[in-house]
Amino acid sequence: MEKTRSKWLPAAVIAVLVLFLGIAVYAAVSLKQGKDELEVRVAELEAELAAVPDTETVMRESEGRLLGDGEMYYSRSSIAEEADMAESMTELMGHLFPDRNVYFNGERYSYDLLSDNIKKHDYDLDKILTVKETGRKVYTGTQEAVSLTGIDVSEWQDDIDWYKVKKAGIKFAFLRAGVRGYESGQIFEDETFRRNLRGAIMNQIPVGVYFYTQAATPQEGIQEAQMVLDLIKGYQVTWPIVVDVEREDSDTSRTKDLTPSQRTDIVIAFCETIEAAGYTPMIYGNIRMLCSDLEPERIAKYDKWLAQYFNRPTYRYDFGIWQYSSTAHVDGISGNVDINLAFRDYGKQD
Hints:
Elements: H1 2-51, H2 55-61, H3 76-85, H4 89-96, E1 100-104, E2 109-113, E3 128-130, E4 137-139, E5 148-153, H5 162-167, E6 172-180, E7 187-189, H6 193-202, E8 207-213, H7 218-231, E9 241-245, H8 260-276, E10 281-285, H9 287-293, E11 303-307, E12 321-328, E13 337-342
Parallel strand pairs: 5-6, 6-8, 8-9, 9-10, 10-11, 11-12
Antiparallel strand pairs: 1-2, 3-4, 5-13, 6-7, 12-13
Helix pairs in contact: 1-3, 3-4, 7-8
């Protein structure tokens, strides 16, 4: 036995040492790769900043952003800090310009100066945290801050166990009522809508409803809103009714050539119909849609549901709900599901 021990002990020690050495080498390589990627991102950012119109003026007017580094109004260390937190160059650019909405328009970055006529949000973005165990976002802005986790679902999620969803801590759910075909223009009820509506309400999950629009005229926008109102008759829908506005740039799309003015007319027609029926209308879109494909000042009065898959949102105007991932996992739902953070409790009675 002693001979066996003396024979294998050195080998075991060597194996452990090799393992730790491998871990150390892997960590060093990973750290170097991370630094290299960060340096590349910083270099890309510096090149992009040099191309921004009136960059120098923007930097001087941006609160808390004056770092006085010669002609660079951001030091490399501050850029690196922001770059390390951002998911992408687009997110990074958005956080570096607090007086603009920054987004990629398909060809280049756009830097839209904020309008004095549109309400800005007052969220402290540094107080948006990620829960390590679940990956969910929470907002800890103030004692009075609202931070509610919710999902949005459609027939893509198939059968849902709403009891398990409730137990998983979901505080609200948006259910897709229907869609309009981007080629045919026909409207269809979501196959799971009624089942989801009954299931969520039965398990005391507050619900809102959304319609995926591809309306080409205000009349079609009204038709979509009326379809939703017909479907929810007799049910307690306490969260907003939403027009889901997304680009469809296919050559066969009936909406690809809509101007921002035309698209805004359609969205307003939907929202006015919902509001007239006594519900809260809301507009869902990404930052490009809300800033460029729609006319921001004309939709300013309506609540916004922002779709932006970043660590922190970069949209500067007011919004009530943030969809931050499409790959969440929630007990009771098979596969991925969209997940959202609400900064307001729309179901709470005033």
